[in-house]
Amino acid sequence: MNKICKTVISQKGKVKLNVHSFLLVKECSVENTYYWSCEKKRSENCSDCAVTIFSNETHDLLAQIIQNNIASVDENLVSNMPSNDALHIRIKHIRSSEMPPQSQTLDEVNVPLLFQYTLKEELFLIRDSQVGLGQLYTIHAPVGLSENSQIFSLIYALMSTKSEELYMQLFQDLNNFVTENEFILRMLKIITNFEIAAINAS
């Protein structure tokens, strides 16, 4: 997986997190989990934040894994090695075999307690439903100043069907949440796939 963030040292010697050229400072840490907030949180009332989890496991790029291992192979054996494409497929297969299976129902979805609450100790899950899992619907939006904004997944909805009624209910719940929390939406346009039910509901 490509790295989208890295740590940098400030002029005062403090560690900052660089996410697509946005700098965040460490708020707190719990075991291997670090909570970061925008360095302009106080000066410009910026509410951007990030959570990083330190892992002892390596998540090197596939090309790095192949290059590092081929460098240690005897020159006489290199010509007998599988192609880079075949090695990529093999590495992906090994990684996916170590991952847990995808959930088929909501009962199988286990969200760790750490991810159930925001930094303000509010429930992350706005609404819950005891229905079968039909799809994971995500809503993306730009975050940051217009010239430096990046698109992030902001809303995740587990939906039982792809009906127009369910999309309307989802959008209504989101509007209610925005109103209750006095957020300001600046939607100039909505881009969606060719799902007629979602288009009609929006």
From TrEMBL:
Q: Where do the FLYWCH-type domain residues begin and end?
A: 8-53
Pfam families in the record, alphabetically?
A: FLYWCH
What is a single molecular function from GO for this protein? zinc ion binding
Protein keywords: Metal-binding, Zinc, Zinc-finger
The organism's superkingdom is given as Eukaryota
InterPro entries per UniProt: Znf_FLYWCH
Q: Kindly indicate whether the keyword Nuclease belongs to this entry.
A: no
Q: Quote the protein name from its UniProt record.
A: 19245_t:CDS:1
Which organism encodes this protein? Cetraspora pellucida
